[in-house]
Write a structure and sequence with these properties.
Strand order of the largest sheet: 4-5-6-7-8-9
Strand content: over 45%
Helix content: under 10%
Number of strands: 9
Radius of gyration: 15 Å
Largest sheet: 6 strands, antiparallel
């Protein structure tokens, strides 16, 4: 669906991914910079998000040419997808919403980021819905949180 070959998808599914996240304020806007490292120290994708809901172009090593936007959002303001809005530790607070469009492969990905409690432990989680034409998939990415 996203134009990623089987071998690369399989390798990604077997890897342990570590996210290094830096959040800061600059010029009155929240910025979140994320660098990913896979098992064995292999450098992955870098995400630099400015939470102002303005589109920015990016060439991603895995997904190709994309454009995306991010913002702080209340769950009530997330459009039409129950999956993106449910299960969060803090249902009333703000979450990060990220929306990305592929310029090369015709898909979109809508994500909401936040925290969930599972078995009494707090995790950083992303709910993701990817769409291409009439097809769609949803995923819940769960990360250990050491904050």
């Amino acid at each position: 669906m996203q134009g990623v070959g089987w071998v690369l998808r399989k390798a990604i599914s077997l890897a342990t991914i570590t996210l290094s996240i830096t959040q800061y304020e600059k010029d009155g806007l929240t910025h979140i910079d994320i660098s990913q490292t896979a098992t064995g120290g292999i450098k992955g994708t870098t995400e630099n998000r400015t939470l102002d809901w303005e589109y920015r172009e990016h060439k991603d090593g895995i997904f190709g040419e994309v454009r995306g936007k991010s913002r702080w959002v209340k769950l009530d303001d997330v459009d039409d997808d129950t999956f993106l809005k449910t299960g969060w530790d803090d249902m009333d607070g703000e979450h990060v919403q990220s929306y990305v469009e592929s310029k090369d492969n015709g898909w979109t990905a809508d994500q909401v980021w936040g925290f969930e409690i599972m078995d009494g432990k707090r995790y950083y989680v992303r709910h993701v819905v990817v769409r291409k034409e009439d097809d769609w998939k949803q995923a819940r990415l769960v990360y250990d949180y050491h904050g």
